[in-house]
Every structure is written in structure tokens, then in C-alpha cells.
């Protein structure tokens, strides 16, 4: 769209102001007052945007996922090997919720670009979920192995999951095949390794 020349507009405004000085003063006063209020309006608008972001973060949504993703990348992934089973289990459940949330957002989004961005985010969350699951399987296996070979071993990894240790000792005393199947079910390790380590 071509921009109209400014000179004819300015000439007609100046002509109007000369012919109607009282009305021109009122218009100039209104424009000046409007320009003075502009910073207040901008400040209010920015404050409203901040409160909306804060509300969205508190109620969930994409910004909440982004915040949690940054937390996982910067903190939680490095601490996985030092966590107890209940902490790992909590993080595994949280990542499952994030993955389901993103899948729901992908289904709602009909546009190609947002769906691609969501799919990238989904891959990242699935990788984190897999890392947590693998860490939990490895630590479960190590702890079960320690408990199996030393009945007096006291570790705090299974705190709150005492039934796992009880089942281990129960199967150890009764049926090796059930023991091996139980460990396979808990840790997802291959049976050859389990049979070798849990004689």
C-alpha cells in the first residue's frame, strides 16, 4: 500500500488550525494528554504480561515445561546416580506426565511449525525419561545384587520400597527361577547376566 505524501496533509491541518484556533487548542490538549498517558499504559501492559506469565507458570503449560526442562538439564540429570529410588520414581512419573502433555498439545495443534517444535520438545523429554529409567534399572540391579550377596547389607536406596528386598530374600531361599524372573522384571536386565550374577 503506497504511503500518501505528508505535505498535503500537513497543509490541510495547518489551514484547519488557522481557521479554528479554539478547536485546535482542544485537539492539541487531548493529544498531549494522550501522549503523557502512553508510558503509564505501556507500564500497565508490561505488568499485565508479567502477571499472565507468572499465572501460566503456576498453572502449568508450555512455560512450566520449559522451566522444568531447564531444571532437568542443569540439575537433575547430573544427580540421578545419587538419588534414592523414590526420587527417581517421582522424576520418572513427572517426565511421563510431560510426555503425555506434549502429545496432547501436538494433537491440538494443526499448524506444522508449532507441531515440529513440540515434537523436538517431545524427543528431549523422552530422552530424559529414558535416562531416568535406565539409571533406575541400573541402581536397582546394583542394590539387589548387594542385598543378595550380603544379607546384612543396609542401603538407603530402597527406602520406602522394602518389599523389593523382602521378595529378593524370599525367592533367594525358595526358588532361583522365580528369583531370576523377579530381578528381570524389576531391572530389565538380560537373563544371562542375571543368572550369572545371582547364583
Automatic annotation (TrEMBL):
It comes from the Bacteria. This is Uncharacterized protein. It comes from Alkalicoccus saliphilus.
Amino acid at each position: 500500500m503506497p504511503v500518501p505524501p505528508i505535505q498535503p496533509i500537513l497543509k490541510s491541518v495547518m489551514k484547519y488550525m488557522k481557521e479554528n484556533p479554539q478547536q485546535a487548542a482542544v485537539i492539541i490538549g487531548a493529544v498531549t494528554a494522550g501522549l503523557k498517558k502512553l508510558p503509564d499504559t505501556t507500564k500497565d501492559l508490561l505488568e499485565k504480561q508479567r502477571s499472565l506469565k507468572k499465572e501460566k507458570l503456576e498453572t502449568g503449560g508450555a512455560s512450566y515445561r520449559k522451566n522444568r526442562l531447564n531444571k532437568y538439564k542443569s540439575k537433575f540429570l547430573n544427580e540421578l546416580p545419587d538419588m534414592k529410588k523414590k526420587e527417581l520414581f517421582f522424576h520418572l512419573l513427572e517426565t511421563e506426565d510431560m510426555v503425555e502433555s506434549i502429545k496432547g498439545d501436538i494433537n491440538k495443534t494443526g499448524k506444522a511449525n508449532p507441531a515440529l517444535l513440540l515434537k523436538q520438545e517431545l524427543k528431549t523429554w523422552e530422552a530424559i525419561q529414558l535416562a531416568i529409567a535406565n539409571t533406575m534399572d541400573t541402581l536397582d540391579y546394583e542394590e539387589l545384587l548387594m542385598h543378595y550377596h550380603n544379607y546384612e547389607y543396609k542401603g538407603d536406596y530402597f527406602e520406602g520400597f522394602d518389599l523389593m528386598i523382602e521378595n529378593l530374600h524370599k525367592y533367594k531361599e525358595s526358588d532361583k527361577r522365580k528369583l531370576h524372573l523377579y530381578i528381570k522384571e524389576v531391572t530389565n536386565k538380560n537373563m544371562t547376566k542375571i543368572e550369572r550374577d545371582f547364583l
